[in-house]
Amino acid sequence: MTVCVSLPANAGHDESELSSSYMSNGSQLVSASLASRDAIPCHPLGVKPSGNGLTAAWDLRTAIGTFNILPDEILLMLLEYLDSASLLNIGCTYCSHLFSDTLHRPFYCAHISLDPYVNKIPARNQITRLPNLSPEEFQQSWTDRPFILTEPVKQWPVFKDWSTEALLSKHGDTEFRAEAVDWPFKTYVDYMKNNEDESPLYLFDRNFISKMGLKVGQPDVEPDAAYWPPPCFGEDFFSVLGRDRPDSAWLIVGPERSGSTFHKDPNATSAWNAVIRGSKYWIMFPSSSTLPPPPGVYVSADQSEVTSPLSIAEWLLSFHAEARCTAGCIEGICGEGEILHVPSGWWHLVVNIEPSIAITQNFIPRSHLTAALDFLSNKADQVSGFRKDVDDPYSRFVERMKEAHPELLEQAMQDLEKAKEGKKRKWDEIVHGKADEAEDGEGGGFSFGFGDDGSDVEVP
Ligand SMILES: O=C(O)CCC(=O)C(=O)O
Ligand SMILES: [Fe+2]
Protein backbone atom coordinates (compact mmCIF):
# COMPACT_ATOMS: atom_id res chain seq x y z
CA MET A 1 0.00 0.00 0.00
CA THR A 2 1.18 3.49 -0.78
CA VAL A 3 0.66 6.64 1.20
CA CYS A 4 -0.64 9.43 -0.98
CA VAL A 5 -0.86 13.04 -0.14
CA SER A 6 -3.49 15.25 -1.65
CA LEU A 7 -4.26 18.93 -1.77
CA PRO A 8 -4.55 20.83 1.50
CA ALA A 9 -7.68 19.85 3.37
CA ASN A 10 -8.26 23.24 4.89
CA ALA A 11 -6.80 26.13 3.00
CA GLY A 12 -5.44 28.70 5.43
CA HIS A 13 -4.26 26.29 8.13
CA ASP A 14 -0.61 25.63 8.90
CA GLU A 15 1.56 23.91 6.33
CA SER A 16 1.11 20.42 7.82
CA GLU A 17 -2.67 20.57 7.31
CA LEU A 18 -2.79 18.00 4.47
CA SER A 19 -5.27 15.25 4.03
CA SER A 20 -3.98 11.84 3.03
CA SER A 21 -5.37 8.54 2.01
CA TYR A 22 -4.12 5.02 1.38
CA MET A 23 -4.86 3.81 -2.12
CA SER A 24 -4.01 0.31 -3.24
CA ASN A 25 -3.04 1.38 -6.76
CA GLY A 26 -0.66 4.05 -5.51
CA SER A 27 -2.24 6.83 -7.51
CA GLN A 28 -2.64 10.34 -6.21
CA LEU A 29 -5.85 10.97 -4.33
CA VAL A 30 -7.85 13.66 -6.04
CA SER A 31 -11.31 12.17 -5.73
CA ALA A 32 -13.07 14.06 -2.95
CA SER A 33 -14.68 17.22 -4.17
CA LEU A 34 -13.26 20.52 -2.99
CA ALA A 35 -16.64 21.36 -1.54
CA SER A 36 -16.72 18.30 0.69
CA ARG A 37 -13.09 18.64 1.80
CA ASP A 38 -13.55 22.29 2.61
CA ALA A 39 -16.24 21.29 5.06
CA ILE A 40 -13.96 19.02 7.13
CA PRO A 41 -12.98 20.88 10.29
CA CYS A 42 -9.74 20.29 12.21
CA HIS A 43 -9.74 17.30 14.54
CA PRO A 44 -10.69 18.57 18.01
CA LEU A 45 -7.59 16.94 19.57
CA GLY A 46 -5.26 18.07 16.79
CA VAL A 47 -4.80 14.62 15.24
CA LYS A 48 -3.79 14.81 11.58
CA PRO A 49 -3.90 12.23 8.77
CA SER A 50 -0.86 9.94 8.47
CA GLY A 51 0.29 11.55 5.24
CA ASN A 52 0.93 14.82 7.03
CA GLY A 53 3.67 13.09 9.02
CA LEU A 54 5.72 12.82 5.83
CA THR A 55 6.47 16.53 5.84
CA ALA A 56 6.41 17.10 9.60
CA ALA A 57 9.55 18.09 11.52
CA TRP A 58 8.56 16.04 14.51
CA ASP A 59 6.23 13.11 15.20
CA LEU A 60 4.62 12.63 18.62
CA ARG A 61 4.66 8.87 18.08
CA THR A 62 8.32 8.68 19.09
CA ALA A 63 7.23 9.77 22.59
CA ILE A 64 5.55 6.41 23.29
CA GLY A 65 8.83 4.52 23.51
CA THR A 66 8.70 0.78 22.86
CA PHE A 67 4.97 0.98 21.97
CA ASN A 68 6.15 2.75 18.81
CA ILE A 69 6.68 -0.67 17.19
CA LEU A 70 2.95 -1.42 17.37
CA PRO A 71 0.53 -0.24 14.65
CA ASP A 72 -2.20 2.20 15.63
CA GLU A 73 -4.91 -0.47 15.34
CA ILE A 74 -3.22 -2.59 18.05
CA LEU A 75 -2.62 0.45 20.27
CA LEU A 76 -6.32 1.24 20.06
CA MET A 77 -7.12 -2.31 21.17
CA LEU A 78 -4.79 -1.90 24.15
CA LEU A 79 -6.60 1.30 25.11
CA GLU A 80 -9.78 -0.76 25.48
CA TYR A 81 -8.25 -2.22 28.67
CA LEU A 82 -8.04 1.20 30.37
CA ASP A 83 -10.63 2.26 32.94
CA SER A 84 -13.09 5.01 32.09
CA ALA A 85 -11.24 7.75 34.03
CA SER A 86 -8.01 7.06 32.13
CA LEU A 87 -9.88 6.94 28.83
CA LEU A 88 -11.51 10.29 29.60
CA ASN A 89 -8.07 11.75 30.34
CA ILE A 90 -6.70 10.52 27.03
CA GLY A 91 -9.81 11.75 25.28
CA CYS A 92 -9.09 15.26 26.54
CA THR A 93 -5.40 15.29 25.62
CA TYR A 94 -4.49 17.62 22.79
CA CYS A 95 -2.12 15.84 20.43
CA SER A 96 -0.45 18.22 18.06
CA HIS A 97 2.03 16.39 15.82
CA LEU A 98 0.12 13.10 16.04
CA PHE A 99 -0.39 11.68 12.54
CA SER A 100 -2.77 8.76 12.34
CA ASP A 101 -5.27 7.73 9.70
CA THR A 102 -6.67 5.20 12.18
CA LEU A 103 -7.67 8.05 14.49
CA HIS A 104 -8.36 10.68 11.86
CA ARG A 105 -10.34 8.64 9.30
CA PRO A 106 -13.49 8.17 11.46
CA PHE A 107 -13.47 11.90 12.18
CA TYR A 108 -13.06 12.63 8.46
CA CYS A 109 -15.91 10.22 7.61
CA ALA A 110 -18.11 11.88 10.22
CA HIS A 111 -17.75 15.22 8.42
CA ILE A 112 -17.86 14.47 4.70
CA SER A 113 -20.72 16.08 2.87
CA LEU A 114 -23.36 13.60 1.71
CA ASP A 115 -24.34 15.90 -1.19
CA PRO A 116 -22.11 14.39 -3.91
CA TYR A 117 -23.53 10.95 -3.21
CA VAL A 118 -27.22 11.65 -2.87
CA ASN A 119 -27.51 14.25 -5.64
CA LYS A 120 -27.26 14.03 -9.44
CA ILE A 121 -28.72 10.53 -9.54
CA PRO A 122 -28.38 9.28 -13.16
CA ALA A 123 -31.80 9.01 -14.85
CA ARG A 124 -31.29 5.27 -15.54
CA ASN A 125 -30.89 4.62 -11.78
CA GLN A 126 -33.80 6.76 -10.56
CA ILE A 127 -36.37 4.87 -8.53
CA THR A 128 -39.89 5.10 -9.98
CA ARG A 129 -42.30 7.47 -8.20
CA LEU A 130 -46.04 6.83 -8.34
CA PRO A 131 -48.94 8.47 -6.54
CA ASN A 132 -50.39 5.12 -5.41
CA LEU A 133 -50.92 1.52 -6.55
CA SER A 134 -53.83 -0.88 -6.28
CA PRO A 135 -53.23 -4.37 -4.80
CA GLU A 136 -53.81 -5.81 -8.30
CA GLU A 137 -51.29 -3.49 -9.96
CA PHE A 138 -48.73 -4.28 -7.25
CA GLN A 139 -49.21 -8.01 -7.63
CA GLN A 140 -49.14 -7.90 -11.43
CA SER A 141 -46.14 -5.72 -12.08
CA TRP A 142 -44.35 -4.37 -9.03
CA THR A 143 -43.49 -7.07 -6.46
CA ASP A 144 -39.91 -7.30 -7.79
CA ARG A 145 -39.30 -3.59 -8.34
CA PRO A 146 -38.45 -0.84 -5.88
CA PHE A 147 -40.73 2.21 -6.09
CA ILE A 148 -41.88 5.18 -4.05
CA LEU A 149 -45.54 6.05 -3.44
CA THR A 150 -46.20 9.72 -2.78
CA GLU A 151 -49.82 9.67 -1.57
CA PRO A 152 -50.72 7.10 1.12
CA VAL A 153 -48.56 8.27 4.07
CA LYS A 154 -49.95 11.79 3.81
CA GLN A 155 -53.31 10.40 4.95
CA TRP A 156 -51.92 8.93 8.18
CA PRO A 157 -52.65 10.65 11.52
CA VAL A 158 -48.97 10.13 12.53
CA PHE A 159 -47.93 12.14 9.45
CA LYS A 160 -49.87 15.08 10.83
CA ASP A 161 -49.03 14.53 14.50
CA TRP A 162 -45.45 13.28 14.78
CA SER A 163 -42.37 15.43 15.13
CA THR A 164 -39.38 15.06 17.40
CA GLU A 165 -40.84 17.71 19.71
CA ALA A 166 -44.32 16.12 19.76
CA LEU A 167 -42.86 12.69 20.55
CA LEU A 168 -40.66 14.27 23.24
CA SER A 169 -43.60 15.78 25.02
CA LYS A 170 -45.68 12.59 24.87
CA HIS A 171 -43.03 9.87 25.14
CA GLY A 172 -39.95 11.64 26.53
CA ASP A 173 -39.62 9.09 29.34
CA THR A 174 -40.51 6.03 27.22
CA GLU A 175 -37.53 3.79 26.62
CA PHE A 176 -36.75 2.81 23.05
CA ARG A 177 -34.08 0.47 21.75
CA ALA A 178 -31.14 2.15 20.02
CA GLU A 179 -28.77 -0.64 18.91
CA ALA A 180 -27.35 -2.07 22.17
CA VAL A 181 -29.04 0.34 24.61
CA ASP A 182 -32.55 1.13 25.84
CA TRP A 183 -32.76 4.89 26.34
CA PRO A 184 -35.60 7.24 27.33
CA PHE A 185 -36.61 9.11 24.17
CA LYS A 186 -35.43 12.42 25.69
CA THR A 187 -31.91 10.95 26.19
CA TYR A 188 -31.86 9.76 22.58
CA VAL A 189 -33.02 13.14 21.24
CA ASP A 190 -30.31 14.85 23.26
CA TYR A 191 -27.75 12.49 21.70
CA MET A 192 -29.28 12.92 18.25
CA LYS A 193 -28.97 16.71 18.41
CA ASN A 194 -25.43 16.77 19.77
CA ASN A 195 -23.53 13.83 18.33
CA GLU A 196 -20.77 14.06 15.73
CA ASP A 197 -20.28 10.32 15.33
CA GLU A 198 -19.16 8.61 12.17
CA SER A 199 -22.00 6.06 12.53
CA PRO A 200 -24.59 7.64 14.83
CA LEU A 201 -26.47 5.34 17.17
CA TYR A 202 -29.76 4.47 15.46
CA LEU A 203 -33.10 4.13 17.26
CA PHE A 204 -34.70 0.96 15.89
CA ASP A 205 -37.56 -0.26 18.09
CA ARG A 206 -39.75 -3.28 17.34
CA ASN A 207 -42.11 -2.75 20.29
CA PHE A 208 -43.08 0.84 19.55
CA ILE A 209 -46.74 0.05 18.85
CA SER A 210 -47.39 -1.20 22.38
CA LYS A 211 -44.94 1.24 24.03
CA MET A 212 -46.71 4.19 22.39
CA GLY A 213 -50.20 2.71 22.75
CA LEU A 214 -50.82 2.95 18.99
CA LYS A 215 -53.69 1.39 17.09
CA VAL A 216 -52.85 0.05 13.65
CA GLY A 217 -55.35 -1.08 11.01
CA GLN A 218 -57.32 0.02 7.97
CA PRO A 219 -59.34 3.12 8.99
CA ASP A 220 -62.70 1.53 8.08
CA VAL A 221 -62.00 -1.28 10.56
CA GLU A 222 -59.97 0.66 13.14
CA PRO A 223 -61.22 4.27 13.26
CA ASP A 224 -58.55 5.30 15.80
CA ALA A 225 -55.68 3.91 13.73
CA ALA A 226 -52.45 5.92 13.87
CA TYR A 227 -51.36 4.48 10.51
CA TRP A 228 -52.18 1.61 8.16
CA PRO A 229 -50.26 -0.27 5.50
CA PRO A 230 -51.22 1.04 2.04
CA PRO A 231 -53.67 -1.48 0.50
CA CYS A 232 -51.13 -2.58 -2.14
CA PHE A 233 -48.94 -3.92 0.69
CA GLY A 234 -51.93 -5.41 2.50
CA GLU A 235 -51.38 -9.08 1.68
CA ASP A 236 -48.93 -10.59 4.16
CA PHE A 237 -48.74 -14.35 4.57
CA PHE A 238 -46.76 -14.12 7.81
CA SER A 239 -50.03 -12.89 9.34
CA VAL A 240 -51.23 -16.53 9.41
CA LEU A 241 -48.78 -16.98 12.30
CA GLY A 242 -50.69 -14.51 14.50
CA ARG A 243 -48.69 -13.78 17.66
CA ASP A 244 -46.05 -16.34 16.57
CA ARG A 245 -45.02 -14.25 13.58
CA PRO A 246 -41.49 -12.83 13.52
CA ASP A 247 -40.86 -9.14 14.33
CA SER A 248 -42.45 -7.14 11.58
CA ALA A 249 -42.73 -3.42 12.43
CA TRP A 250 -40.14 -0.94 13.64
CA LEU A 251 -40.01 2.72 14.59
CA ILE A 252 -36.81 4.20 13.16
CA VAL A 253 -35.41 7.53 14.40
CA GLY A 254 -32.00 8.93 13.62
CA PRO A 255 -29.95 12.05 12.94
CA GLU A 256 -28.41 13.02 9.61
CA ARG A 257 -25.82 10.36 8.56
CA SER A 258 -27.42 7.59 10.57
CA GLY A 259 -28.73 4.69 8.54
CA SER A 260 -28.44 1.07 7.57
CA THR A 261 -25.40 -0.52 5.87
CA PHE A 262 -25.95 -2.99 3.01
CA HIS A 263 -28.23 -5.88 3.90
CA LYS A 264 -31.15 -7.95 2.63
CA ASP A 265 -34.27 -7.99 4.79
CA PRO A 266 -34.84 -10.95 7.10
CA ASN A 267 -36.51 -14.25 6.15
CA ALA A 268 -36.79 -13.24 2.46
CA THR A 269 -39.51 -10.72 3.33
CA SER A 270 -40.38 -7.63 1.33
CA ALA A 271 -40.76 -4.33 3.19
CA TRP A 272 -42.17 -0.87 3.06
CA ASN A 273 -40.44 2.10 4.71
CA ALA A 274 -42.49 5.25 5.33
CA VAL A 275 -40.79 8.56 6.07
CA ILE A 276 -42.85 10.58 8.54
CA ARG A 277 -40.26 13.37 9.06
CA GLY A 278 -36.97 14.04 7.25
CA SER A 279 -35.65 12.19 4.20
CA LYS A 280 -33.61 9.13 3.32
CA TYR A 281 -31.27 8.29 0.46
CA TRP A 282 -31.57 4.68 -0.77
CA ILE A 283 -29.25 2.70 -3.02
CA MET A 284 -30.44 -0.78 -3.96
CA PHE A 285 -29.39 -3.80 -6.02
CA PRO A 286 -31.27 -6.90 -7.11
CA SER A 287 -29.78 -10.25 -6.14
CA SER A 288 -29.80 -13.72 -7.63
CA SER A 289 -27.61 -16.77 -7.57
CA THR A 290 -25.61 -15.40 -10.52
CA LEU A 291 -25.33 -11.69 -9.64
CA PRO A 292 -22.42 -10.52 -7.49
CA PRO A 293 -23.27 -8.55 -4.33
CA PRO A 294 -23.00 -4.73 -4.53
CA PRO A 295 -19.50 -3.21 -4.83
CA GLY A 296 -17.67 -3.32 -1.49
CA VAL A 297 -19.95 -6.03 -0.10
CA TYR A 298 -18.61 -9.55 0.42
CA VAL A 299 -20.82 -12.50 1.24
CA SER A 300 -19.93 -15.94 2.61
CA ALA A 301 -20.86 -18.97 0.48
CA ASP A 302 -24.08 -19.65 2.44
CA GLN A 303 -24.84 -15.89 2.55
CA SER A 304 -24.94 -15.99 6.36
CA GLU A 305 -22.11 -13.47 6.73
CA VAL A 306 -21.98 -10.10 5.03
CA THR A 307 -18.80 -8.04 5.20
CA SER A 308 -18.66 -4.42 4.08
CA PRO A 309 -17.02 -1.18 5.25
CA LEU A 310 -18.13 -0.55 8.81
CA SER A 311 -19.52 2.89 8.21
CA ILE A 312 -21.88 4.22 5.55
CA ALA A 313 -19.54 7.16 4.90
CA GLU A 314 -16.59 4.81 4.37
CA TRP A 315 -18.65 2.84 1.82
CA LEU A 316 -19.75 6.04 0.08
CA LEU A 317 -16.16 7.30 -0.15
CA SER A 318 -14.79 4.01 -1.43
CA PHE A 319 -17.51 2.35 -3.51
CA HIS A 320 -20.36 4.73 -4.38
CA ALA A 321 -18.91 5.83 -7.73
CA GLU A 322 -18.48 2.22 -8.88
CA ALA A 323 -21.91 1.23 -7.53
CA ARG A 324 -23.61 4.03 -9.46
CA CYS A 325 -22.21 2.57 -12.70
CA THR A 326 -23.09 -1.03 -11.85
CA ALA A 327 -25.95 -2.68 -13.75
CA GLY A 328 -29.12 -3.00 -11.69
CA CYS A 329 -28.33 -0.03 -9.39
CA ILE A 330 -31.45 1.80 -8.22
CA GLU A 331 -31.18 5.04 -6.23
CA GLY A 332 -33.60 7.54 -4.83
CA ILE A 333 -34.54 9.92 -2.06
CA CYS A 334 -37.65 9.04 -0.10
CA GLY A 335 -38.96 12.33 1.22
CA GLU A 336 -41.29 13.34 4.01
CA GLY A 337 -44.71 11.71 3.56
CA GLU A 338 -43.44 9.12 1.05
CA ILE A 339 -43.18 5.35 1.29
CA LEU A 340 -40.66 3.07 -0.43
CA HIS A 341 -41.02 -0.57 -1.45
CA VAL A 342 -38.07 -2.94 -0.85
CA PRO A 343 -38.64 -6.16 -2.83
CA SER A 344 -37.72 -9.48 -1.22
CA GLY A 345 -34.04 -10.30 -1.64
CA TRP A 346 -32.85 -6.83 -2.73
CA TRP A 347 -29.67 -5.39 -1.23
CA HIS A 348 -30.08 -1.90 0.19
CA LEU A 349 -28.06 0.79 1.96
CA VAL A 350 -29.95 3.69 3.51
CA VAL A 351 -28.72 6.99 4.92
CA ASN A 352 -30.75 9.74 6.56
CA ILE A 353 -29.94 13.02 4.85
CA GLU A 354 -31.89 14.92 7.51
CA PRO A 355 -32.94 13.91 11.02
CA SER A 356 -35.70 11.39 10.32
CA ILE A 357 -38.64 9.56 11.84
CA ALA A 358 -39.86 6.50 9.93
CA ILE A 359 -41.94 3.38 10.27
CA THR A 360 -41.03 0.19 8.45
CA GLN A 361 -42.92 -3.05 8.10
CA ASN A 362 -41.90 -6.41 6.58
CA PHE A 363 -44.33 -8.70 4.81
CA ILE A 364 -44.67 -11.69 2.46
CA PRO A 365 -46.65 -10.91 -0.70
CA ARG A 366 -48.09 -13.76 -2.80
CA SER A 367 -45.28 -13.73 -5.36
CA HIS A 368 -42.61 -14.21 -2.68
CA LEU A 369 -44.30 -16.99 -0.72
CA THR A 370 -42.00 -19.58 -2.35
CA ALA A 371 -38.90 -17.51 -1.50
CA ALA A 372 -40.00 -17.26 2.15
CA LEU A 373 -40.70 -21.00 2.38
CA ASP A 374 -37.33 -21.70 0.78
CA PHE A 375 -35.58 -19.40 3.27
CA LEU A 376 -37.33 -20.88 6.31
CA SER A 377 -36.58 -24.45 5.26
CA ASN A 378 -33.13 -24.18 3.66
CA LYS A 379 -31.60 -21.31 5.63
CA ALA A 380 -33.02 -22.29 9.03
CA ASP A 381 -29.81 -21.13 10.75
CA GLN A 382 -30.33 -17.61 9.34
CA VAL A 383 -34.00 -17.29 10.22
CA SER A 384 -34.48 -14.36 12.61
CA GLY A 385 -37.03 -12.38 14.59
CA PHE A 386 -39.09 -15.28 15.95
CA ARG A 387 -39.72 -15.61 19.68
CA LYS A 388 -37.35 -18.16 21.23
CA ASP A 389 -40.17 -20.60 22.03
CA VAL A 390 -41.22 -20.81 18.36
CA ASP A 391 -38.79 -23.65 17.81
CA ASP A 392 -39.53 -24.75 14.24
CA PRO A 393 -40.73 -21.68 12.34
CA TYR A 394 -40.82 -23.48 9.00
CA SER A 395 -43.12 -26.30 10.18
CA ARG A 396 -45.34 -23.89 12.06
CA PHE A 397 -45.67 -21.64 9.02
CA VAL A 398 -46.47 -24.60 6.75
CA GLU A 399 -49.03 -25.86 9.27
CA ARG A 400 -50.83 -22.50 9.49
CA MET A 401 -50.67 -21.95 5.72
CA LYS A 402 -52.22 -25.38 5.22
CA GLU A 403 -55.18 -24.27 7.34
CA ALA A 404 -55.55 -20.77 5.92
CA HIS A 405 -54.43 -21.02 2.25
CA PRO A 406 -54.07 -24.72 1.28
CA GLU A 407 -54.08 -24.13 -2.51
CA LEU A 408 -51.48 -21.37 -2.37
CA LEU A 409 -49.27 -23.50 -0.14
CA GLU A 410 -49.60 -26.46 -2.49
CA GLN A 411 -48.64 -24.30 -5.45
CA ALA A 412 -45.66 -22.75 -3.61
CA MET A 413 -44.43 -26.19 -2.53
CA GLN A 414 -44.61 -27.41 -6.11
CA ASP A 415 -42.66 -24.34 -7.29
CA LEU A 416 -40.08 -25.03 -4.61
CA GLU A 417 -39.70 -28.64 -5.73
CA LYS A 418 -39.37 -27.53 -9.35
CA ALA A 419 -36.70 -25.01 -8.43
CA LYS A 420 -34.82 -27.65 -6.45
CA GLU A 421 -35.08 -30.08 -9.36
CA GLY A 422 -33.77 -27.39 -11.68
CA LYS A 423 -30.78 -26.84 -9.42
CA LYS A 424 -30.21 -30.59 -9.06
CA ARG A 425 -30.18 -30.94 -12.80
CA LYS A 426 -27.58 -28.19 -13.02
CA TRP A 427 -25.58 -29.86 -10.26
CA ASP A 428 -25.71 -33.19 -12.09
CA GLU A 429 -24.63 -31.46 -15.26
CA ILE A 430 -21.63 -29.93 -13.54
CA VAL A 431 -20.59 -33.12 -11.80
CA HIS A 432 -21.48 -35.70 -14.44
CA GLY A 433 -21.60 -33.69 -17.66
CA LYS A 434 -24.68 -33.04 -19.74
CA ALA A 435 -26.62 -36.27 -20.33
CA ASP A 436 -26.91 -35.76 -24.09
CA GLU A 437 -23.23 -34.90 -24.49
CA ALA A 438 -22.17 -37.89 -22.42
CA GLU A 439 -24.37 -40.20 -24.44
CA ASP A 440 -23.66 -39.14 -28.00
CA GLY A 441 -19.99 -38.67 -27.26
CA GLU A 442 -19.70 -35.48 -29.31
CA GLY A 443 -20.79 -31.86 -29.01
CA GLY A 444 -17.45 -30.20 -28.30
CA GLY A 445 -16.93 -31.41 -24.75
CA PHE A 446 -18.38 -30.38 -21.42
CA SER A 447 -19.75 -26.93 -20.80
CA PHE A 448 -20.84 -25.35 -17.54
CA GLY A 449 -24.53 -24.78 -17.91
CA PHE A 450 -25.03 -21.91 -15.46
CA GLY A 451 -28.05 -19.83 -16.15
CA ASP A 452 -30.14 -17.82 -13.78
CA ASP A 453 -33.41 -19.42 -12.97
CA GLY A 454 -34.09 -16.53 -10.64
CA SER A 455 -33.98 -18.60 -7.51
CA ASP A 456 -31.55 -18.92 -4.64
CA VAL A 457 -32.72 -22.40 -3.75
CA GLU A 458 -29.90 -24.42 -2.24
CA VAL A 459 -29.03 -27.92 -3.38
CA PRO A 460 -30.03 -29.90 -0.29
O1 LIG B 1 -34.64 3.44 7.36
C1 LIG B 1 -33.67 2.71 7.33
O2 LIG B 1 -32.59 2.95 7.86
C2 LIG B 1 -33.79 1.41 6.55
C3 LIG B 1 -34.28 0.33 7.41
C4 LIG B 1 -34.16 -1.02 6.80
O3 LIG B 1 -33.64 -1.22 5.76
C5 LIG B 1 -34.73 -2.15 7.51
O4 LIG B 1 -35.43 -1.95 8.51
O5 LIG B 1 -34.52 -3.29 7.08
FE1 LIG C 1 -33.84 -3.30 5.25
Automatic annotation (TrEMBL):
GO molecular function: cis-regulatory region sequence-specific DNA binding
GO annotation, cellular component aspect: nucleus
Pfam families registered for this protein in UniProt: Cupin_8
Comp. bias intervals (Basic and acidic residues): 420-436
Classification via Gene3D superfamilies: Cupin (2.60.120.650)
Segments forming domain JmjC: 218-380
Region annotation (Disordered) ranges: 420-460
InterPro entries associated with the record: Cupin_8, F-box-like_dom_sf, JmjC_dom, JMJD6_ArgDemeth/LysHydrox
Stated name of the protein: F-box and JmjC domain protein, putative
